[in-house]
């Protein structure tokens, strides 16, 4: 038996992907398990931590069975996890809440107002780099819990992030890493540690936050109980892992200064790796600590990308519901429509505005519809709308940091050749797709596992694992047309934001 393989888990918003890698970083097999998100009230978005654990167990067993890999060959496991989550456990390690708010939950607006009476927003943002809407960050979720569920809150021994909860179920170890901690709303980016002034302003004890350990450190070993549930061997090492943004940045380009990628998944962001965090109070890029101390991944985002495209599929393509290749049909439709979608624009903001957009109350919509437009126009417009929304955020990032080279597309949307062409023409920069595409976060987690158990020494080999599959230069004529559309899109977005604010006042 040779312990020369790794399991990497990508714990995303839509489900858990378990991937098997060999010692060279090659992906051997993968499997996916979906889980649900719950919306009990307006601005509430929750998931069940035990669904994550059940997904990990089921995915692991299926992965090992279908790949034929003996569990004894697994040298280490590591997780990438979606951010800004607060999972409460008591002193006995029992889960205190069956459902917890996830990254996009926005319920804590009153707590945000209270916090910034104690400290200035500018000081907090410049220290933490937490540029998403403040309501989404963990410390404010805990303030809400303290106010609205005090009995539960006072039973909390520790709170854990998404991947940290799974690590706890695997090993019994209670900890987090710098990248996940940097999304708690209480992390000092430059000091690489918690900042006591934020706990004081929030009225939350520092003691309930987990200790911070390096992303590529072994934090424990699979327990007998966990082995019985998930199929890994008892004693399998588990690395601390990292937040999804950091794992994706690591898997996308390693630790190379100035490299940039677009993650095109349910939500979408553009991120750059650098030794200096990109901080700007007016545009508020969000920053996470990277996998290695002294590096950061700074990003701008939209909350709806693939999920808006999925909404188009579910509501405009119902006659193809029995067709497993509905997205292929949509791609063919989009390809048959010229740039500009015969005058139709689409704003993809179906899940509220990000910090880089004019208002959290920004809502999506179509503009320019006439009796002559077709469903095909709407499908292409939806793809162009996502790219235009991201181009807005890319321009914000470019004003703060020098971006050179290709834009690497990662995530499910990168599989679409039509979408890649649209991105190249709207971004006005070369777009690269590699074999990694949806596996960037998984590769990042696998690299953490490989370093944790000593089979790798650093992350220098990651770029060599990318094999070019498509490289598109922008078409100058098409870009010139899009450049004329973009100011119209921008003005319309501002109008939608103002109207969204008025509508929110009527709720």
UniProtKB/TrEMBL annotation:
Protein name: Pentose kinase
Coiled-coil annotated spans: none
Signal peptide limits: none
Keyword Manganese: no
Domain Carbohydrate kinase FGGY N-terminal: 7-251
One MF term in the entry's GO annotations: phosphotransferase activity, alcohol group as acceptor
Pfam families given in the database record: FGGY_C (PF02782), FGGY_N (PF00370)
GO BP terms, alphabetized: carbohydrate metabolic process
Keywords from the named record: Kinase, Transferase
Gene3D superfamilies cross-referenced by the UniProt entry: 3.30.420.40
Ranges for domain Carbohydrate kinase FGGY C-terminal: 261-452
Keyword Transmembrane helix: no
Family statement: Belongs to the FGGY kinase family.
């Amino acid at each position: 038996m040779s312990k020369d393989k790794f399991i990497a888990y990508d714990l995303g918003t839509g489900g858990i992907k378990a991937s098997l890698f060999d010692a060279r970083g090659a992906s051997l097999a993968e499997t996916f398990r979906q889980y649900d998100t719950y919306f009990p009230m307006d601005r509430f978005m929750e998931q069940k931590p035990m669904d994550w654990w059940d997904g990990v167990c089921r995915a692991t067993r299926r992965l090992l069975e279908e790949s034929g890999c003996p569990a004894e060959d697994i040298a280490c496991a590591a997780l990438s996890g979606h951010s800004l989550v607060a999972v409460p456990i008591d002193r006995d390690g029992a889960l205190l809440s069956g459902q917890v708010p996830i990254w996009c939950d926005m319920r804590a607006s009153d707590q945000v107002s209270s916090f910034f009476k104690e400290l200035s927003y500018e000081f907090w943002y410049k220290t933490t780099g937490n540029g998403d809407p403040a309501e989404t960050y963990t410390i404010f979720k805990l303030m809400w819990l303290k106010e609205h569920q005090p009995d539960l809150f006072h039973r909390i021994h520790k709170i854990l992030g998404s991947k940290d909860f799974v690590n706890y179920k695997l090993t019994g170890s209670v900890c987090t890493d710098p990248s996940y901690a940097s999304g708690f709303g209480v992390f000092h980016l430059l000091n690489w540690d918690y900042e006591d002034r934020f706990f004081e302003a929030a009225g939350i004890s520092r003691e309930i936050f987990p200790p911070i350990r390096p992303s590529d450190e072994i934090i424990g070993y699979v327990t007998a109980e966990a082995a019985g549930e998930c199929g890994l061997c008892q004693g399998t090492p588990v690395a601390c892992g990292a937040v999804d943004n950091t794992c994706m940045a690591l898997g996308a380009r390693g630790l190379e200064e100035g490299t940039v990628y677009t993650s095109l998944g349910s939500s979408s962001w553009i991120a750059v790796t650098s030794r200096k965090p990109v901080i700007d109070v007016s545009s508020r890029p969000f920053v996470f600590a990277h996998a290695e101390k002294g590096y950061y991944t700074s990003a701008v985002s939209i909350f709806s990308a693939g999920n808006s495209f999925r909404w188009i599929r579910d509501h405009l393509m119902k006659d193809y519901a029995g067709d497993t290749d509905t997205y292929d049909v949509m791609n063919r439709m989009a390809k048959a429509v010229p740039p500009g979608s015969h005058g139709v624009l689409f704003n993809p903001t179906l899940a509220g505005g990000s910090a880089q957009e004019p208002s959290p109350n920004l809502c999506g919509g179509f503009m320019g519809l006439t009796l002559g437009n077709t469903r095909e126009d709407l499908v292409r417009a939806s793809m162009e709308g996502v790219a235009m929304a991201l181009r807005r955020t890319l321009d914000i990032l470019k004003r703060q940091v020098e971006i050179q080279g290709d834009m690497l597309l990662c995530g499910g949307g990168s599989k679409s050749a039509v979408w890649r062409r649209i991105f190249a023409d709207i971004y006005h920069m070369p777009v690269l797709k590699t074999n990694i595409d949806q596996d960037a976060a998984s590769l990042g987690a696998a690299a953490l596992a490989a370093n944790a158990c000593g089979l790798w020494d650093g992350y220098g080999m990651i770029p060599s694992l990318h094999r070019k599959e498509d490289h598109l230069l922008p078409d100058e004529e098409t870009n010139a047309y899009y450049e004329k559309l973009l100011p119209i899109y921008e003005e319309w977005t501002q109008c939608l934001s103002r109207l969204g604010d008025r509508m929110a006042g009527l709720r």
